[in-house]
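Hi P.,

Sorry for the delay on this. The queue was packed all week, but I finally got your sequence through. Input first:
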Amino acid sequence: TETRTVELKSMEPDIFKAATSQEGSVEHKIATDNLIKKFASPEFKELFGAKAKMIEFQTWEGVDVLKIGADLSKDPIRTLDNFNNNVYKNLSAETKIKLQSKIELAAQQKISSDLKQDEVRASLGLEPQFNANEYLKVFEGFESYDAIKLQIDINDKVRGAIQQVHTAKEEDLSNIKFYKLEGSGAEILAKRKANTIIRSAIEQRQTAINNGDAAGYISKIDPNIIALDEKISTSQDANTQKELIKEKKLLLDQKFNELNIPLNKRFYMSQSQAQSIVGNIKNAERWEEQEQILNGIEELYGKEDMPDIIRHLALEGMPLANQ
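Then the structure:
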């Protein structure tokens, strides 16, 4: 018995690697091959006798159970899809029944979280990052199906109307069209919630622009500027950053004109960027450090834009001595 225990214990590292390493990787292949050789060896069969086959089945089943645990932590929705498509082929019928509700719950929780994030994306006019119909299928037969369908419908309706908020000229915001509360009960609920989100989007736009945050607002709704911001933030080269900022300024000028943003509200930085810079200036202990911060901004944005940048920083509380 002790010999058998030691033998089973010696297999644990390979079982773990077979379950958690990337399928197709060298590590996964070595671990899997080790287990296959182990089960085929005369020594193993002699040690466990009539139970050898059962132990082999239980081991591969254990690999799949561990793999499901690892997969759930990475992508519960894909794990459920794999489970339903018999990717974990070593599971017994009994084990499948035990695991099914756990996997379904994890996938549904992830979908609910994704839909909440998608409500924000919808309000910004950004495309969904998932297939809504595939998500809805996960809830078929569950009590929460109607609530999930309602949330998907709300997000769809917001996307169908929100672009007018993001493209209207400043003076036309009062003419934004809302959904008429007509149709079935669920449809009216979706339209009412969508209208609330659209009104909130109008208020957020007006607040942002009034606070000198037109650039911040546009940076949330324009995919081209979102992509540029990502490149700017990840670039380690000052010259590349300067070129990207120049490109962003051109796009912002275009959007400022399209939206008819008041001239005194047109800044190339977001409010949060300006506030961060002002905070750094206030925290600098010596005036040389403060000057270095402003010189760095001038280097990136250009001397011609510094008067407006200084005005923006002043609005965010930059000390008078630095203006």
